[in-house]
Amino acid sequence: MTISKNDLHKIARLAYLEPETEEMEKLALEVNAIIDFVQQLQGLDTAEVHPLFHPLNLKQRLRDDEITEQNCIDELASIAPQFENDLYLVPKFVDVDTGQ
Q1: pLDDT by position in tens, the chain (length 100)
Q2: Strand, helix or coil at 84?
Q3: Residues 5-40, buried b or exposed e (16+ Cβ, 10 A)?
Q4: Which of 18, 19, 50, 94 could form a disulfide with 23 if both were Cys (CB 3.0 to 4.6 A apart)?
Q5: In this structure, are residues 24 and 5 in contact, taking their beta carbons and an 8 Å threshold?
């Protein structure tokens, strides 16, 4: 199967592209090379080949979850410009009445 210049013009028009004439010639060669390569791949016998999900057969090593409870409110309050009742205070940036 080969793609002609007319086919490429139709595809380009459908994609709202306007490539130059010399670009179309180069593109036709590249597309046909890709199609030839795909046809070669389709001709390979992969009946005994198992799917490869990852190139390395490694498991991701994660540390065990360790629950820790810390009260760091004082530390957070010390670095906040404004902190009141265990909450950060920030400038109003949305007007509730207008939604802006």
Answers
A1: 788 888 988 998 999 988 888 888 888 899 999 999 999 999 999 899 888 877 777 777 888 888 888 888 888 889 888 988 888 898 888 777 776 6
A2: strand
A3: eeebbeeeeeeeeeeeeeeeeebbeeeeeeeeeeee
A4: 19
A5: yes
